[in-house]
Design a protein that fits this description.
With 290 residues, the chain is α+β, with helices and mostly antiparallel strands. It folds into two domains: 1-52 and 60-176, Uridine Diphospho-n-acetylenolpyruvylglucosamine Reductase, domain 3 (2-Layer Sandwich); 188-288, CO dehydrogenase flavoprotein, C-terminal domain (Enolase-like, domain 1), CATH 3.30.390. The protein is built from eleven helices and 14 strands. The chain has helices at 13-22, 36-41, 78-83, 85-90, 92-98, 104-107, 112-117, 124-131, 229-235, 242-255, 267-288, and strands at residues 6-8, 27-30, 50-53, 63-66, 69-73, 135-140, 143-148, 153-155, 158-159, 166-174, 180-188, 196-207, 210-219, 226-227. The strands form four sheets. The chain has a five-stranded antiparallel β-sheet with strand order 4-5-10-6-7. Strand 11 (180-188) and strand 12 form a beta hairpin. Helix 9 (229-235) packs antiparallel against helix 10.
C-alpha cells in the first residue's frame, strides 16, 4: 500500500497554503524528501493522504537581502545554500555546517528547511542557525508569522510547526557587520558520512581585544538545540585569552545536559572532548572578526 494517495505541486505559496485547507488529510509538505521518505517507508511517520511538493514555490527558493536581514528559503537544496556568495559573506558558520550534512548526493536534494523541520537537537544546520540568531518564517491557514528560531523546537524530533496547517517558508539572518565572525565545527566517528558526536557553533563580535557580544550553540546539549546563554553573559566584556576560555568551559559544563547515546558517545566522553572543540571554534570565530 502506498504511503500517500495525492501528490500536489503548487506554483506559489498561496496555492500551497490553500492546499493545507482543501487537500485530503493527513498531509505533509515535501521538498528533498531525504528524511520524510525514509520515515514513511520505515514507519516512523504516519502514512499521509497528500504530499505537497514545495520545490516549485518561488517564495521558498530565494536567497536575498531583505532590509537588514539575509533571507534563505526553506526549499533550497543545501548545496545551493553553501555555494551562495551572500551566505558565505554573512553566515560562515552555516556554510561550514551545510558542508557536513550527509554526503554530496544528499546535499544536492536535501533542503535546509528539512534539516531544521526534523527538529533534531544536534542537526548541523540547526546548531549553526541557532548561533546566528536566525528567525523563522512560517505560513499557514491563519496567516504568516516570524518567530525566534529557538521557538521552532519543543523536543527531540518535535517541532512547533503545526502539522498539516503550516509550512516553513525560510529563515532571516542578521547581516554580518564589521568585527563580527562565526564558525561551526563538529566531531564525528571516523567513517564516511556520520552523525555528529558533538558540534559547536559560535558567533561573536569583538571590540579591540574584548568580546563585545557572543552566541554559543552546542549539540546535543539538551532535548532541543541548546544555547549557552549563561556562558554568553559571563564572556561579554572579557578579553580573549586562556583564562577566558577556561571560565567559558567551566560555565558550559555546569549547565549543559549531555546524554549518553549507544550509537554516538557517552555523556562523559562528550564532556571530555567539548573542551578542544569549543576552543578551536572560539578562536576561529575570533580571528574572523578581526
Amino acid at each position: 500500500m502506498s504511503n500517500w494517495q495525492n501528490y500536489l505541486q503548487p506554483k506559489n505559496l498561496s496555492e500551497a497554503v490553500a492546499a493545507l485547507s482543501t487537500a485530503p488529510k493527513p498531509l505533509a509538505p515535501i521538498a528533498g524528501g531525504t528524511d520524510l521518505m525514509l520515515d514513511l517507508e520505515q514507519g516512523r511517520h504516519e502514512a499521509v493522504q497528500t504530499l505537497i511538493d514545495v520545490t516549485g514555490i518561488a517564495e521558498m527558493l530565494a536567497i536575498e537581502i531583505r532590509g537588514d536581514r539575509l533571507f534563505i528559503g526553506a526549499g533550497i537544496a543545501v548545496n545551493r545554500v553553501v555555494a551562495d556568495p551572500q551566505v558565505n559573506q554573512h553566515a560562515q558558520a552555516l556554510i561550514e555546517a551545510g558542508n557536513l550534512i550527509a554526503g554530496p548526493q544528499v546535499r544536492n536534494v536535501a533542503t535546509l528547511g528539512g534539516n531544521v523541520a526534523h527538529a533534531l537537537p544536534a542537526a548541523d544546520g540547526t546548531i549553526a542557525l541557532t548561533a546566528l540568531n536566525a528567525e523563522a518564517e512560517i505560513a499557514g491557514i491563519h496567516g504568516t508569522r516570524r518567530i525566534p528560531f529557538n521557538e521552532l523546537f519543543v523536543g527531540p524530533g518535535k517541532s512547533s510547526i503545526k502539522q498539516g496547517e503550516e509550512i516553513l517558508v525560510g529563515f532571516y539572518l542578521p547581516l554580518k557587520q564589521e568585527h563580527q565572525g562565526s564558525c561551526f565545527k563538529r566531531i564525528m566517528r571516523p567513517q564516511g558520512v556520520a552523525l555528529p558526536i558533538i558540534n559547536v557553533a559560535i558567533w561573536l563580535e569583538r571590540e579591540d581585544d574584548l568580546i563585545k557580544d557572543i552566541r554559543v550553540a552546542i549539540g546535543p546539549g539538551a532535548p532541543t538545540p541548546w544555547r549557552a546563554r549563561d556562558t554568553e553573559k559571563i564572556l561579554v566584556g572579557r578579553p580573549m585569552n586562556e583564562e577566558t576560555i577556561k571560565i567559558a568551559l567551566e560555565s558550559i559544563l555546569a549547565h549543559i545536559g549531555f546524554r549518553s547515546s549507544p550509537r554516538r558517545a557517552s555523556a562523559d566522553y562528550r564532556r571530555h572532548i567539548v573542551e578542544g572543540l569549543f576552543k578551536d571554534v572560539f578562536q576561529t570565530a575570533w580571528g574572523r572578526a578581526n
